[in-house]
Amino acid sequence: MIEVKQVSKVFPNGFKGLDQVTFQAVKGENVMLMGHNGSGKSTLFRCLSGLEQPTEGGVSIAGEQISRLKRKQMRDLRKKIGMVFQHFNLVSNLSVFQNVLFGALGNVPTALHAFSTFATRELRIDAMECLDRVGLACLASRRADQLSGGQKQRVAIARMLMQQPEIILADEPIASLDPKAGKYIMELMSDIAKERKLTVVTILHHLDLALEYGDRILMLKEGRLVLDEACQNLSRGELERFYDTEALYQASREGA
Amino acid sequence: MYELKEKRSLEAPPRFKRPSLVASAGWLVFALLIGLGVKGAELTFSRLGSGVVNMGHFIARAFPPDPTRFGPIMARILETFEIALVGTVIGVIASIPVALLCSRNTCSNLFIRTAVKSAVSAMRTIPDLIWALIFVISIGLGPLAGILTIAVDTIGFCARFFSERIEEMEKGPAEALESAGASQFGIIAGAILPAGLPSFVGTSLYSIEKSIRSAVILGLVGAGGIGVELSTAMSLRKFDEALMIILMILVVVIGVEQVSSRIRKRVI
After folding, report:
1. What is the distance in angstroms between the CA of the first residue and the CA of the last residue of chain A?
2. How many Å lie between the alpha carbon of A252 and the closest alpha carbon of chain B?
3. Is there a contact between B186 and A87 if contact means CB atoms under 8 Å apart?
4. Residue pLDDT, tens place only, B76-134
5. What distance in Å separates the CA atoms of residue A226 and residue B49, rounded to the nearest whole number?
6. Looking at beta carbons, which residues of chain B come within 8 Å of A78?
7. Which residue, among A104, A79, A36, A42, has the nearest Cα to A249 in the 3D structure?
8. Chain B CB within 8 Å of residue A102 CB
9. How far apart are CA A60 and CA B13, in angstroms?
10. Do A91 and B195 count as a contact with CB atoms less than 8 A apart?
């Protein structure tokens, strides 16, 4: 489903963001992407969603080589990729229901059809079902900025479900939530991914949650992939040692 | 180490800094202009004194205000209000696409952006009375010239503030919709306009208040409205009628400001 082959990214200022990164994620796999700030996680994400073109190597998603796509095809591909953001990115002065409907913006004939007033009956029902899946059907007519952080992230997930994605890219989805809400979100995303056989890549800084909900853990260090291991083969202690800066530094030197 | 201690000084900074040569020259020119201005306007105490006396005469002759022409004046006031309202509505509606064209995050073409931005600042910097003169010459006397003037003035004002709001907007929601595969139009309609709406409404209401004041004056150059009545009454020295007009203008302007501040409180 996701294939990253020897991807490197060198920025115009000469900084090497990614260095020969290669990995695959198959359908239904839940991959946790870890690494310290500046390790290249976000750059890799931007390459996966097509916001950034790698300098070298290729990214293919759902069988399509991203670098070969034209604008229109890129938009079509984006519909298949559901994004979850750290700051939820809801339109704060609109209703929860309206925000969820916007998830369908890529699939409606004109943008107006994604507005509550003009949306078809089917689309409105779909939106309510997505909201129900995250357990917030009762808050449909609330304004988005009246919700708690955890609720906002659930609405954002409902919006992402409206796209009927095949892949979910989650960029630190629980970084601005309290531990309880964070765990709830991880549980929700993992359940949804299982029941719909979605491929998920999540950027996460939380070791325990990564081991608990991930199938596999990828670790980046200075743009290089230093760990790619199934969660069942990793103990908490081992992961911790990898996450630790010293150990990472040594690991990356040994790898070089 | 010891030396450093010795050199340490507890002397406070000087009270005044000696201004640079350019700054001194600037102050000199400034003072000169003030002096010339006061002299040119013949601003003297005797003149101010006689001014107060004349003002007294005006007030004495203006009281009581003359209500005999209440009907025609009211009709003109209504026309003024309509000029302001229609002109502002046209201006506000036009401001939205114009603002989108001069914001960095909605228009990536530098050439278009610069061109539209310059046009908007021309609309803003040329005073409304001059626009009115231009429109009166090109399409003739009457309310239409006034409406166009107000519309141009509103675009100059609203498009700038709308665009500032659009540019300072957080990128997140737009990014989210883009990642869902939304078109450029979808992103604007779904994320940018809704997020800007409260601020747009506030700016538009303020712009109506501004337009009312401006429409009162436009009559002076024949662009319709109450201004022409006022200037006629003044030049015929019918001060009691002039006072009536001024009072009625006051009532309308205050009324509009009250209504608009109520609406603004509700929306924002």
Report:
1. 29
2. 33
3. no
4. 888 889 999 999 999 999 999 999 999 988 888 889 999 999 999 999 999 988 998 89
5. 88
6. 178-181
7. A36
8. yes
9. 65
10. yes
Cβ atoms A7, A66 nearer than 8 A: no
The answer to whether A192 and A133 have CB atoms below 8 angstroms apart is: yes
Strands A30-35 and A216-221: parallel
**Chain B residues near residue A49 by CB distance under 8 angstroms:** 179
CA distance B96 to chain A (A): 17
What is the reported pLDDT for A112?
Answer: 84
Dihedral pair phi/psi, residue A90, rounded to 5°: -85, 155
Q: How many CA atoms lie within 13 A of A231 on its CB side?
A: 17
Q: Quick: pLDDT tens for B232-266.
A: 888 888 888 888 888 888 998 899 889 988 888 88
Preceding amide of B64 cis, omega within 30: yes
Find which of A102, A112, A164 to mutate to test the B interface (most B CBs within 10 Å of its CB).
A102
Fill in the DSSP letter of residue A199.
Answer: E
How would you classify the pairing of strands A2-10 and A56-61?
A: antiparallel
Tell me the C-alpha distance between A64 and A76, whole Å. 11
* Nearest residue to B106 (alpha-carbon basis) of B200, B158, B183: B183
A185 vs A84: CA distance, rounded Å:
11
Task: Walk across the sheet containing A30-35 and list its strands.
Answer: A81-84, A167-171, A199-203, A30-35, A216-221, A224-230
Give the pairing of strands A56-61 and A64-65: antiparallel
For chain B, helix, strand, coil in percent to 5 are 80, 0, 20
Separation CA A86–CA A102 (nearest Å): 18
The torsion of the CA quartet A136, A84, B188, A141, rounded to 10 degrees, works out to 10
* Contact: B181, A115; criterion CB under 8 Å: no
Q: For residue A234, what are its two tokens?
A: 């990793």
